[in-house]
């Protein structure tokens, strides 16, 4: 069994999609939120998943918070750390500690629209397609090696909410897929890029 820890800050719909996907060989060891009021915490509890809160407000520095968070995560001995709507920047030491086994989902077609308010900015820019990206996390924000992307149209009457709703449906499809590939040992990182190995050549002890 591969142990997966999921970090959230809010609604947790991607966390729920991953948990409900029933990925063979995966156990969600814990869902951790940096916000005590994250509604995803209750969703996780209802799914029978252990939850923890580590409120960043109780820490003076990012480094101190990151160190405590890393300690908490390590206590679950995860094979994979999944950021699912986790809305805090992680420091370099934290990223280095989990590099190669930490995924994030970002609501744009990276490398376009890194950062916040992706849908509003996509509409303002007049792009005709938008989407979401699952990528490995590296020290630079929203820039790590891309695992999978999904594309949706941007329609003439779209506002931010309409586009977000169309994109999140795809997020719920591609994030479980990325987790599945990871635990199957099919994601090979070479020269900053992800190569998807054939299921038969992937080396994994996940079964
Ligand atoms: C998702 O749309 C995710 O792509 C985005 O936050 C939302 C979280 O929804 N993440 C980011 O913007 C990260 N920079 P959820 O809590 O329902 O999964």
TrEMBL record:
InterPro entries: Formyl_transf_N, Formyl_transf_N_sf, GART, GART_AS
Keyword terms, alphabetized: Purine biosynthesis, Transferase
Pathway: Purine metabolism; IMP biosynthesis via de novo pathway; N(2)-formyl-N(1)-(5-phospho-D-ribosyl)glycinamide from N(1)-(5-phospho-D-ribosyl)glycinamide (10-formyl THF route): step 1/1
GO terms assigned for molecular function: phosphoribosylglycinamide formyltransferase activity
Binding site for N(1)-(5-phospho-beta-D-ribosyl)glycinamide: 12-14
Binding-site residues for (6R)-10-formyltetrahydrofolate, renumbered to this chain: 62, 87-90, 104
Catalytic reaction(s) noted: N(1)-(5-phospho-beta-D-ribosyl)glycinamide + (6R)-10-formyltetrahydrofolate = N(2)-formyl-N(1)-(5-phospho-beta-D-ribosyl)glycinamide + (6S)-5,6,7,8-tetrahydrofolate + H(+)
Residues with site note (Raises pKa of active site His): 142
Highest taxon above the source species: Bacteria
Residues in Formyl transferase N-terminal domain copies: 3-179
Coiled-coil region list: none
EC number: 2.1.2.2
Enzyme class of the recorded protein, top EC level: transferase
Keyword Hydrolase carried by entry: no
Residues annotated as catalytic: 106
PANTHER family (alphabetical): PHOSPHORIBOSYLGLYCINAMIDE FORMYLTRANSFERASE (PTHR43369:SF2)
Family: Belongs to the GART family.
Role: Catalyzes the transfer of a formyl group from 10-formyltetrahydrofolate to 5-phospho-ribosyl-glycinamide (GAR), producing 5-phospho-ribosyl-N-formylglycinamide (FGAR) and tetrahydrofolate.
Official protein name in the record: Phosphoribosylglycinamide formyltransferase
Native source organism of the sequence: Uliginosibacterium paludis
